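Task: fold both queries, return tokens.
Query 1:
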Amino acid sequence: MSALLQNITHEVLSAPTWLVLLVVGTIVFVEDAIFVGFIVPGETVALLGGVAASLGHVPLAAVLIVVIAAAILGDSVGFEVGRHLGGRVVRLRAFDKHRDRIDSAQDFLGRRGGAAVFLGRWTAFLRAVIPALAGMSKMHYPTFLRWNAAGGIAWGAVVVTAGYLAGQSYAKVESWLGRGAAVVVGVIAVVALVVWQVRRHRAESGEQSPARESAESSQAR
């Protein structure tokens, strides 16, 4: 896996500007648009876009614009998918193992409304399913769009900036030790950020599960 990440990092960082922006934008868009965000690594690729900007391969402003626009547009497409096809999609066998998490996401959306669209942007699974579930719930699109735009702007700015800051360390090591070692450091920085996101998501899930069990127990009484 580390060799694969190193190869991906090397290819992204050495690609032409237009290709970096195309790949980053497409993956971020697909992550949100077609209900597969827990498979497609949009956040990781956005981080690498920030690293590429830090190294001068692409303009930082261009990466920010592409990531934010792709996030907002992808969520909007996901919303429409949910509105027109969501019920059929979530009943597919491919989602059976995620049934409990989808139910929890629906409950979260029901409790928080538009705010769930913003908050869901910060975890991979919710980022994938909340737009479609919002469409299924018949949420008014202007309400969805306001929270979606706020989440896309905040998430895109934070993730790309994190990659940009990680890239500065990458550039220093590259000048000291050569490109091979610098690639490894860049991969480590990106992986560390991803692992942090995964652990935070698991911690949030762990906090929500006992609360849910407690609520169900109280209702049973």
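Query 1 returned. Query 2:
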Amino acid sequence: MGTPPPPGSPYEESPYGRSPYGGPRRPWTPPPFGQTAPRLAGRWRRLFAGIVDGVIVSLVTAPVTWDDWRAAYDDVTGVVTRVPAGDGLVVAVIGFLYYWLLQSYWNGQTVGKRLFGMRVVRETGEPAGLGPVAVRQAVMTVLGSLCCLGLVDLAWILFDPRKQALHDKAARTLVVDA
């Protein structure tokens, strides 16, 4: 018990602990690209799946925001006019819940992702789960509500070698073929 294992044994010690799988356990590294890693979903399919999901969220939030007008007084003309005022917070919460609940409990998929054969997973290939999907959607919601950062977030997949948007990088998730 007090003697270290012989060199080359499957239980070699390392600063990261013991590994019974033939060598020291190393810190986490992303899975390699290749045949063993899940295939990354295509950019066009992600776009079309996002459009489908956006239409669904719009249909769900339409009754909440359909007739949402506010009266505003114009000092210059002295006229009271009706101005459209959206309930951005309500729409953001409904959108967050749609993406978060479906991707957490429906194998990493929303309706759009299921139609186009994709799902969200951790960078290790494991199912994403509640926490990473919540981080992913919170970052996506915040960036989407800030002027041009939502477009930067979505356009990021055009230049990233792993096709990750900024919200994917924050949550350490990938969108792969289902």
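Both queries returned. Flag for query 2: The two ends are 47 Å apart (CA to CA).
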